[in-house]
Every structure is written in C-alpha cells, then in structure tokens.
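From the shared-data thread, chain only:
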Amino acid sequence: MVDQLLVVNPKAIFGSDQPFPQHLADLLEEWHKENGTERPPCNTKQPMRSQVGWKTFDRQGKHLELSAYTIKGPASYNVLVLHTADGPERLVGSYFPFGTVYGTFLKGWLGVHGGWDPAPCAVRKFSNTPDDLSYESEAWDAFEVIEMRRNKTQAPTSGANGPRRSLPGPSQMQRQETRPQRKSLPGPLVATNDRRDNIAPGTSSSSAEEESDEEGDTSSESSSDEEPELTSAPKRRRMNEPSVSTHRDHKVVFKLFSYKSGAVRCFPLGECRTGKEFFDKARAFFQLFDRNAEVKILSCQIASQPLQQYIFEGSEGEFALLVDQVKSLAGDGALTIEVSHVLSLH
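Structure, as tokens:
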C-alpha cells in the first residue's frame, strides 16, 4: 500500500461543514507525487479576516457555495473549493490577477495533467451587505471586454524583439467600437488598505485576488508565497527638482482606458510632470463617464511588461519610480503606459 502524502485539515476555514472531497484530495495527491513539496497552482495564501461578505454564482446564475480548506502536508497552503450545482466539487482560483466591479472570475483546476479550465466557471461578488447581492448576467459581457483588452496588452510579450505597436497622437480623445453601457467601471478592484503587488497576469497560472481580504493571494505556477517586489528602477529623483524636457519624454505615452465607455485618451509624459498632474488628467477623463468616480488609485501597466503597478494619489515617489522605470525601458523606441481606474471597496 502506497503511503498517502496529503494531510488536510478536516474543518473548512469557511463555507461547507463537510470534509474535504476525496476526489479533490486525489488530484492534490497526484500533484505531490510528481512535484514533491511544491505547492500546486491552485493554492492560496492564508485568508485574512474581513467583514466583507460575498456570494458566488455560476454562468447560469445559480448561487453556489464556496469553501476554503487548509492543506498541512506535504506542503502548507490553502485551496478554494466550489460546490457546483449539478456536478462534483471543483478546485478553483482567480482567472484575472485583479477583481472587477462584477466580482472575481473563478476558473477550475483539473489537476497536474488537466491544468486550468480555459474559461471561468463562476463569479464571486463582494459587498458589505451580501444579502443585497444578486446575479448579473452582464458580468460575462464585461469579462469578454476585459479579456480582449488583456490579450491585446500581452501580445507584445510573446515577441519582445518584434515591431513595437504604433502609438496614437500626442493628446487626443478617441472612441473604440461601441460596447454595451456598463453601470459601473469593471476595472481592477482593491481594498483601500491593501497595497499588495499584483502577480503577473496569465490564464495558465492562478492569480492574486486584490479585492478581498477574506481570501488573500493565489500563487502563480511557481507556487511561491513571496510577494513580487516593486520593479527595480534607477535612483529616485526628487519631485521638487525641476525636470528638463527632452525629446525622449514624447516617446513615453500614457494611455487612459475607460472600460465603461470604451473611450481612450493618450498624452505624452511631457504633459504631466508630477503625480498630481497625472491624477488630475486621469480624474478629468474618468469622471466624463462616471461623475461620481473617486479616482484615488490608478493601475498602470507598461506595454510589454507583465506586472501591473498601483499608483496611489498623493504618492509622488510611486509616480517617480514608474517614470524612471519606463524611461529606462523606452530606449530609442516609443513606449506606452496603459492606465485604468481602480475601484475600492470602501
């Protein structure tokens, strides 16, 4: 008889009062037989306490139970289990490395050989008043929009030496193809007091949930619990020192994107010398489509770079680091920083 490697805490951290499903234990057991003490891609970090509640819905709008269990051996980690309406329980993780206004999209993990499902199977919605949460079918339309934009953003990473994307004019407002109106911006969603860094996005690996302290981060395929460090940059320049305009500034372009309207605004680095000017421009743009939008956090992603960076209003140092980094990458070519509005829970 082969010794069993997997050791599971029989009591769920939250959710079901049933023991950990045996068929899921078999999947994890198989993983560890092939990978030893390496944690599987579906692992999550230790959940943090939060008063934010949630509900989980499948694609048909059925309310599903979501549970978390602790695995004690041969490695220590947590997993999320989705109790489906018409089938066996599933191990799940985040599809995106961020949440949206419609919630966190969840995808199933099928084991060491099956990998991740190519499409999400459920959406987890958060609220301070979970009793008021209801299913929204438009969440899946929003998913398609976000996935399309992310694929376009990641396209240059597959061929770093290929031609760079052409950039729009220095300062303009343009409309993309008409999309259904959203009642609210489905951009990344984070807790205002949670400043954890994002894990690089990718459908082939599990990702961090930024909008909920209840679940914590989901590790990537490397199964590392270490949080990514802020991308290294040259020495930080003081923001009160005058900046000298050079031709290189115009090769760095900020591209603001509104999920709600599909509108895009582009302007060169030379038009915003400080973090305050950056936020003033972003706020004016995003409030065109949502006059009540509180633009306090911006998600910035340098084209061809997988890591998203959150810039908080009032932090000139964070803005300076971003500018220094993008200048070091621009070289003799043009580079775009894609910017979206980050929603908060509070």
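Confidence is low (pLDDT under 50) at residues 157-250.
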